[in-house]
Amino acid sequence: MSKFSKDLVEALKDIVFDCNWQNVGHVSQFESMKCYKFYSLDEVDQDILLIRDSNKSFFAIDSRCSHEGGPLEQGDIEELGEKLLVICPWHSFDFNLKDGSSSTGLKQQTYETRIVNDILYINTPMSISLNKQSNIDEKTEELSEKLDKCLVLNESGEDSLCFWAVKILQTCDPHEKARLTNEVAEKWMSGEICQIGFKNPPDQPKRPEHLTVIDPAKIRRGKGGTLASRVALLHSLANIEQWAMDLSWDIIARFSDFRFSNGSSLPKEFFSDFVKVAQDESKHFVLLDKRLNELGSHFGALAVHNGLWESATTTKFNFLSRLAIVHMVHEARGLDVHPQTRLRFANQNDSESVKLLDILYEDEITHVAAGIKWFQYTCQQNNLSVIETFQEMVKKYFKGYLKPPFDTKGRSIAGMTEEWYMPLIKPGQCV
Question: Residue 38: is it exposed, middle or buried by C-beta count within 10 angstroms (0-12/13-18/19+)?
């Protein structure tokens, strides 16, 4: 019998006694391409990329960007000195494949790899496969049944808030959408429009035919180092604000007939709060478009994506999930990225854009607060544990883990302390 080398024996011991090592196959099957995607069989969208460099070394890293979830498998792989980087295709965030570090300050989860006797192993607690699992079992929750909407058949007339909400959703031109939003908000606040009403919202808001809408993975964003890069960042923010207007009107129209478990309906204050959010988003869009014009561009000059609406579609039948994902998770993420975005413009002495970003930031804190306020209210009406229910909603309806760094100060001002979100980060991930 041939003798095994001491190093091989020790390596095999490590793998045997550490149950997290996953045998992914013989190294020869990973020679034809630079990048391979392993799908998690345990959790949705917790996939891992395996990347091979020119020296035939292997690196494993989370497939979704820790910034906004961009698909890293569609990004570029670049060598910068001794560093091997993967670049997110959405906003050009770079991540070192060795340790997950980024020049932006973000951190991407990486996984140790090892080759033993020509077999490649990845150290991860998840079961992974090159083949995507077609049907992952999902746990059904009593919460979903309790909070399903009660559909009303009769739609209201032109004097109702929901009529105008749907009209705005069906308005193609973003400038007219913003104008109508501000006008309707003023009429609601003054009492000229006083009926909430009901009207079925469209599956998706309308957009101008000339607006180029592409897959989120194909949109590239710079780091603010050039004028073109700053324009691209402002254009991306304007697109987000356009969607944010629609998301505010959609929750008003889609859940106008929502009933709590005791049969009561949403109070008028709920609608006033989200009319105010919609008005803020319209203000943001107008300010961003104005700034784009000052920099020699305009909204629509670049391609946009509609990725944000995916969360609206996923949560369209469950009120608590809509509040949790759209108006708490996504809105709070906007707070998280503000410091780095602001710094990029400040480094280029773009003081006007910095002032604009600060306005957006201050308003967005109140938007997160609105989401929290009505999430808490709904849980109390239905005798549910607030933070536990939030975490359950995120686990079920949000793709992946929440990813640091977090703007703890802004989140705290809005009412979201660390106990809300820290349990939702990936185990072992640095904050």
Answer: buried
List % helix, strand, coil for the chain (3-state, nearest 5).
45, 15, 40
Nearest Cα to Cα of residue 219 among 306, 91, 330, 94: 91
3-state class (DSSP) for residue 407: coil
Give the pair of three-digit tokens for residue 39: 């799908």
Residue type, 272: S
Nearest residue to 67 (alpha-carbon basis) of 34, 100, 112: 100
Distance between CA atoms of residues 88 and 86, nearest Å: 7
Between 47 and 14, whose confidence is greater? 47
| pLDDT of residue 247 exceeding 90 | yes
CA distance between the termini of the chain: 50
Distance CA 81, CA 68 (A): 27
Work out whether the CA dihedral 382, 383, 389, 390 comes out positive or negative: positive
Residue 289 has pLDDT above 60, yes or no: yes
Closest CA to 323 of 276, 267, 377: 377
Q: In the beta sheet, which residues pair with residue 25?
A: 120
Question: For residues 318 and 147, is the Cβ–Cβ distance under 8 A?
Answer: yes
Alpha-carbon distance 150 to 143, whole Å? Answer: 15
Helix or strand holding residue 125 (H, E): none
Which residue would you say has higher pLDDT here, 92 or 295? Answer: 295
Contacts 24+ apart (CB under 8 A), 264-268: 264/381, 268/196
**pTM for the full model?**
0.66
Cα-Cα-Cα-Cα dihedral sign, residues 304, 310, 311, 317: positive
Q: For residues 428 and 352, give the distance between their C-alpha atoms in angstroms, rounded to a whole number.
A: 40
Q: In terms of DSSP H, where are the helices of 348-385?
A: 351-381
Give the distance from CA 44 to its chain's centroid.
15
DSSP, residue by residue, 231-281: HHHHHHHHHHHHHHHHHHHHHHHHTTT-B-TTS-B--HHHHHHHHHHHHHH
Amino acid at 129: S
The DSSP call for residue 329 is I
Between helix 161-169 and helix 174-190 the angle, nearest 10°, is 170
pLDDT score at 262: 87
Residue owning tokens 């020296």: 55
102-125 residue pLDDT tens? 988 889 999 999 988 888 989 888
The two structure tokens encoding residue 182: 């501000």
CB-based contact 289:175 (threshold 8 Å):
yes
